[in-house]
From TrEMBL:
A Gene Ontology BP annotation from the UniProt entry: ribosomal large subunit biogenesis
GO cellular component: nucleolus
Family: Belongs to the NOP16 family.
Protein name, UniProt field: Nucleolar protein 16
Organism in which the protein naturally occurs: Suricata suricatta
UniProt keyword list: Nucleus
Entries under InterPro entries matching the protein: Ribosome_biogenesis_Nop16
Subcellular location: Nucleus, Nucleolus
Amino acid sequence: MPKAKGKTRRQKFGYNVNRKRLNRNARRKAAPRIECSHIRHAWDHAKSVRQNLAEMGLAMDPNKAVPLRKRKVKAMDIDVQERPKELVRKPYVLNDLEAEASLPEKKGNTLSRDLIDYVRYMVENHGEDYKVSGLGLAGRLGRHPPFGV
């Protein structure tokens, strides 16, 4: 299909474009952001994913990291040959991940302090009368009671 006349324009060099920033942003978009900060700081962009993870003591494929022995062949018949262990050059990444995983988990399912105090106050004043105490709590939570109550 022919082009419309006068719509083709030759490309001109953009002198006011910062090439360093343009390349950096293109590289950042091409590679996804690594969420884990410990791995992100130890990452070497010149190396492959498998090489980076091996240096940190992590495995790319868990099936190959811990190979399963075949059950049909007896271990006595075959001399078990151990593969040479890969050199862990960045053990601090693994140590940091283990330390972070061993921290106690923060409980995030609790109510706010003022709401707990308000419920305690309502129970002390109204006791087992949930209808009266529920009217005040519904207004506090931003919900209105039904019209029949």
